[in-house]
Fold:
Amino acid sequence: MGRLAPSPTGRLHLGHARTFALAASRARAAEGRLLMRIDDLDTARCRPEFTRAALEDLAWLGLRWEEPVHVQSRRLDRYRAALARLHAAGLVFPCHRSRKDLAEALSAPHESPLHPADDEPVYPSAWRPPADAPPPPLDSAGLACNWRFRVPDGREITFVDGHYGPQTAVCGRDFGDFLVWRKDGFPSYQLACAVDDAELGVTEVVRGADLIRSTFRQLLLLEALGAPRPAYHHAPLLTDENGVRLAKRHDALSLATLRASGRHPADLLAEP
Ligand code: GLU
Structure:
């Protein structure tokens, strides 16, 4: 079972098209199924019209997926249940530090090649509550704070990527205690993605290479939830003529613009 998981935060561009088409063609080649998941938990940036547009653009590209479409904002009960399991297992702790606290604590440059500036900062282990301190309950007050997954410091997480080959990261060095729940009452991307991949029976994840670092966190969550690992295939990101990674602001390469200018889907997908 493969999946397409657009975030409806803007119009899809050529880079998305290539990655999603790869996911679809790999599923087809394996005679597997393909599901559609809408990653709409970033309430400040997601808009329903972008969901509609993404489905339209992907259908225009010729991609086909199974119904029903799985919309993350309608699956909150599943994520709460998963958080409760992590909580019962003593794997999460509440965090009352702000982003600013974290930024100040980390003003010294962090030296891991796996940890570029745009990644979630490595949480200072000195801020963790002791491992044997019982966490507060997950009542309504509990669900209104940030929760972090306590990573097993020093443990090496490895997987073999279908495109990039063997990948390794060390917990506590390349990434730290990461957010699983946000105080606005929504799960983090990492938790929602792991829960969905597990519960929807995804066996191969095809997505952009910017998410390789997330894979290590999701593998820890899948293990904690007793779910099998899918295979991972991260696709290189498209860049513009200046070598800048394509983003939703590159309107000229949005599928909407390309479609309006008469471009044909097969040509867009075939070009190097
Ligand atoms: N929604 C994410 C994106 O559009 C992809 C998440 C995933 O494939 O796990 O970048």
